[in-house]
Amino acid sequence: MHIFYSYVSMLYVIDVFNYQFCVVCRKGDSCFPKNPDGTMQYDNIDYKETWKAMERLVEKGLVKAIGLSNFNSQQINDVIAAATIKPAALQVECHPYLAQNELIGHCQKYGIIVTAYSPLGSSDRMWKAADEPVLLEDANIKTIANEHGKSPAQVLLRWQVQRGVVAIPKSVNAARIAQNLQVFDFALTEDEMKTVGNLNRNWRYIVPKIVVDNKSVFRDALHPHYPFNDPY
C-alpha cells in the first residue's frame, strides 16, 4: 500500500477514484500470471479491505470521491455494510443489449450514480468476435435515428441520458467526439424509450476470455469474487 499511496500523492487531487475489478491476480512479474494449463493464478484478497484503503485516500485529501466498477448488487451491499464512506458511483458495461435495469435500480436506491462504459457497444475493439451483434447497426436504433435526424450513436447516448445514467463513450475522432455531445437538443418519445429498452439480451461485449484446452472460456469465471455469475 505504500507504493499505492506514493503514486496517488504525486498526482493532483482525483475527483473520483474507482475500484476497477474485485478479481485479484497473484502478485508477480506479470500482471496476468497463468498456470501451465492456461488458467489464471489468482489471489483472494477481500475487496472490502481494498475499499478501506481507498477510504483512507479520501481522509488524506488525495481523492474527493471513491466508487466501484464491475461489482454486482451483493458485492455493493457488502461494501456499503463495511464502509464509512459510501460508494459515489458504479461504472459498468451498459447499453441496450445489456440494459442493467435491476442493477441501476439497486444503485439508485442507495444514491449511487451509474456510469455506462461501452455505451455504443465497443465494436472497434481488437478482440471482437466475428459473429457478435453490432449494436450500432441495429435496425431499431437506425429507424429511431432517422426519425430524429441523428446518428445511431446519439440515440444510444440519449437513451442513457433519459434514464439517468452517465455515459462515457470513447473516441479519438474529433468529429465523433463533438457529435457525442450533441444529445441534449432532442428527446426520445416514451415508445422509443421502450423500443430501445426491449432490445436487452444480457449480452456482454467486455468480458475477458482465455483459451484453455483449445476452448475459449471466460477468464475469471472460477474466481470466488467474479461478479457476473449473479443475475445482477
Structure keywords:
8 helices; 16% strand; 232 residues; two-stranded antiparallel sheet; 9 strands; five-stranded parallel beta sheet
Structure overview:
- The protein has helices spanning 2-9, 47-59, 73-82, 101-109, 139-148, 152-162, 174-181, 190-197, and strands spanning 14-19, 24-25, 42-43, 63-69, 89-93, 113-117, 166-168, 209-212, 215-218.
- The model has no long low-confidence stretch (mean pLDDT 91).
- Helix 5 (139-148) packs across helix 6 (152-162).
- The longest helix is centred in the N-terminal third of the chain and has 13 residues, at 47-59.
- It is α/β, with parallel strands linked by helices.
- It is globular, with a radius of gyration of 19 Å.
- Strands 1-4-5-6-7 form a 5-stranded parallel sheet. It has a two-stranded antiparallel ribbon with strand order 2-3.
Task: Write a brief structural summary.
With 232 residues, this protein is an alpha/beta fold. The chain has helices at 2-9, 47-59, 73-82, 101-109, 139-148, 152-162, 174-181, 190-197; strands spanning 14-19, 24-25, 42-43, 63-69, 89-93, 113-117, 166-168, 209-212, 215-218.
State the major sheet: 5 strands, parallel
Helix content: 25-40%
Low-pLDDT stretches are none
What oligomeric state best describes the polypeptide chains here? single chain
Radius of gyration in whole Å, from Cα?
A: 19 Å
Mean pLDDT across every amino acid position: 91
The topology string of helices and strands comes to: HEEEHEHEHEHHEHHEE
Count the beta strands.
9
- In terms of structural class, how would the helical and strand content be classed? alpha/beta
What is the approximate shape?
globular
Distance between the termini: 31 Å
Question: Which strand-content bin applies to the residues?
Answer: 15-25%
Tally of helical segments: 8
* Strand neighbour order, sheet with most strands: 1-4-5-6-7
